[in-house]
Queue: 3 jobs
Job 1
Amino acid sequence: MDCQEEQLVNTICDLYEKISKLESLKPSEDVNILFSQLVFTCIPPNPNIDVAKMCDTVQETRQKLIKICGEAEGHLEHHFSSILTSFEDNPLHHLNIFPYYNNYIKLGKLEFDLLTQNINGLVPRNVAFIGSGPLPLTSIVLASSHLKETVFHNFDIDPSANALASLLVSSDPDISQRMFFHTVDIINVTESLKSFDVVFLAALVGMNKEDKVRVIEHLQKHMAPGAVLMLRSAHGPRAFLYPIVEPCDLQGFEVLSIYHPTDDVINSVVISKKLPVVSNGSVVGGPSCLLMPCNCSKIHAIMNKKKKMMIEELEASREEQFS
């Protein structure tokens, strides 16, 4: 690292020390100020920051910071979901009170565009979102603005989160009929995963590499061949906020695109498709580690001829299923 990058990492580590001393991570003036400073520090794109190459001390701080960010994010969503459900009219008409709502609008549009490009414009009938939380904004944005006939099944391990989320959408005559909530550890969900055309995996489901890969392996085992897995990752200094998903973590999936935003959308997006299983129980091919990360205007994916033909066959098969 050069001096500027070293200073950036030191600033992030200093902020971690301040945040770790807070008595509570629930929304308050001190919490809001420190986390705003952290996001402001991490959000400028810097591809030269590679957290995997940093010393053990920084790696340990990063893991602790991701865990703290996850806890704080949960408190923030719970706080605003509670406020929203107190509105007498439709709470979904007031989502803009959530401070990061515009980010979710941008992220939803980005993920919808990536999905559309990679399934040839087909409209999925059933979508699963794993780790939906008390404020399931991705599902709400996609259901209300982009996938207006799709059914969404939201999975979260926290019953209080699902109770709030269910109450949040209950007043909307359309969304309430297309959105369902399941309180369960996704590791315990098996056969029903085959019914989903697209599965979204939240960034904070599996906060370390081992847990993340364990969830991905479970999804690979039980998702339908040809189904799409959308994951959220992080790049550069943003990896101090969220875990990184590498293409080689996706055994049994074909990685179609990786997109690294450079605006205020923090998460990178990884889109992949489950490969078919052959007669001996193995999968055809494996994750492509020869992917070029996307900039804000283009999506690049390197794919050999055989894999491309396989994807086209899968898409044709999915088209018949959707029709």
Job 2
Amino acid sequence: MATISAALAVSFLPSPTRFAAPATPSFSSRIKKAARFRCCAGPSSKEQDQEISAAPPTRLPEKPARTPPSSLLGISTSTWSAGVAGLGFLETGYLTYLKLTGSEAFCPTSGAGCSDVLESDYSVVFGIPLPIFGLVAYGLVTALSLQEDGKDLLPGLDDLDIRLTLLLIATSMATASAYFLYILSTKFVGVSCSYCLLSAFLSFSLLFIRVKDFGLERIQKFVGIQLSVAVIVALALTNSYSSATTQLKGTDDFVLEPYETEITTESSPFAIALARHLHSIGAKMYGAFWCSHCNEQKQMFGREAAKILDYVECFPNGAGKGKKMTQECQAAGLEGFPTWFINGKVLSGDQELEVLAEASGFVADGTEQPKEIAPN
């Protein structure tokens, strides 16, 4: 205990040596203490200045440079694409105008082949005129090709996006053209369509240009996507044309020019009165010039009465390959000829005059259908 007390007493004695050391910690000790907490506190201003001066200057990210398109005969593939697609845009624009206005196409070759094809069932896909699809496709290819050539028409697209999109569009257009050439050779035998051949040539040219742009080695990476696009286009066209009903079954195996069959029977007063009544209530008879039952129906009415009837010819331009039923007959949803529409009723096949009178509510005023005299 004495030793401990002596030690404590000595420690509290005023000594010059003890007061020589300042109570405030030294600068070096403060640095050491501060260094312990450097993970929580930021560096000193001096250290920050040293770090900032040593760090390289920060640069803003630059846009990747565009890969220059390849050339073909000394002209860039983007220029070729824009030029070819521009021609296609003009052609499909003209055909779209004809389709929407119902005008007849100018055919450079002799004959009516152009109109037969352009007005057939195959000129419409899912209810939309085919030239409109071509107009949109060629217009998009033109815009993307100009963008690839340096024109900032569609911002936000990089070089690979543009080139791959052009490749897939060209693939779909070439697939559709090949499909249409097959239809032209099988459904329109002997018919020439200059516009169809020109569009096919432009589509195949675009595909060749885009493949040339990628190169054969690089294009192998996208063959699977191209095949998928081609299959989708072919299936879509097949589905659209399989549901077409504008040409009745059995009429695609022959070609007939329209003709008139002479009505040789005389009209009875009853037939004339019935024909006038049917005309007054808006009853219509839909038929075709080649339909024997339609001609028999007209013979029942006779020459005078048949002229009074509201008869709708569904194939005024002929029947067979490439011939199209009129829009009115398409909208009616006919299943055969003749077909009567009387007061909201549909009567299929040739009908006796008494049946037509009953269906239309016709009341004979002093006229009766003459009875046939049975042979003895």
Job 3
Amino acid sequence: MTGIQSDSKYEGGHECFASTMKDLCSGKEWRKISTVWRLLVLVVIGAVSLYMCMVGVGTRQFPFESVEGAVVKDWRREDESCAPRGPSVDYYQHYPLPHSYGRQECQCTPVHFFVILSMQRSGSGWFETLLNNHPNISSHGEIFSVKPRRANFSTIARTMDKIYNLDWLNSAAKNECTAAVGFKWMLNQGPMEYSREVSDYFEKMGVSVILLLRRNVLKRLISILANAYDRKAKPLNGIHKSHVHSVEEAMKLAEYRPVIDVNHLTDNLHRVEQITDDAQRFFNNTRLRVVYYEDLVMDPKHLMQVQEFLGVQPRKLESLQVKIHTRPLREQIQNWDAVLARLKATQYETLLNDGDST
């Protein structure tokens, strides 16, 4: 009897289990469980996503966040153990630790960061060769003539970080203890387009700015037109040369006399003046020095003052470049009479005066 009851109990249990499984398999209960699991997974995913967003916002760098901290962390580094030497100065002194080599005995030689802002055919090439004639100055040329380097401000900043960390190695890099490092930057190659970011970088990194201009913008225009012709015609044995190192080459290139569009002449001259005025305004908050090509040519003291501005010992500097256009203006322009008539009695009449050799 007991055995029969026991069997009935187990049989009842089996029936209950079977009934439960049947309900589950029927789909109703299964759908309930499936829905619960789906909700649970969604909650977990949402929580993880929220956490990642919070972390991302906390670490993200915005466009005008302090530039100095970013470059120190990402690339540029300095030796904090070096104490300033000599008298106090009015510019930043840096102690770079290059990634590509060791400065060894020059490790604690302070380095001054600078940039030459200018416009094409304003004497910047000649000026830079003079600076590189100094054993303690390294100026690395027209770095941002390569378009990918100025694709956006991030690429511009990375390039400048590399230069100022003394990791930009080319013919301008010095074996001696570099005391001033910089490069040449044309105004139409990024500094005006990203003026706010660039100015912020210069201020925070202590970059001194040399704005090299040419007073006689008419002579600059002649040089631009002649250089454009040389790029196409290549009269020097099929080779284009923006700068020459012999009198014979200079005389050959000076044979070309451009025809100037007098209808748009004053507008073009005014546009150049506007660009240079904007440059002075954009970078007025930096340590800025405006230098004129004509002053450098006429009086050596101006080059001495530039060296003092860069924090190096002034000395006589020389360049192997030979000036191309030395003849009077009337002999450099084909339609001289038309140019003369157009500029007479205007604010640009003084540009017709070429009493100097610039």
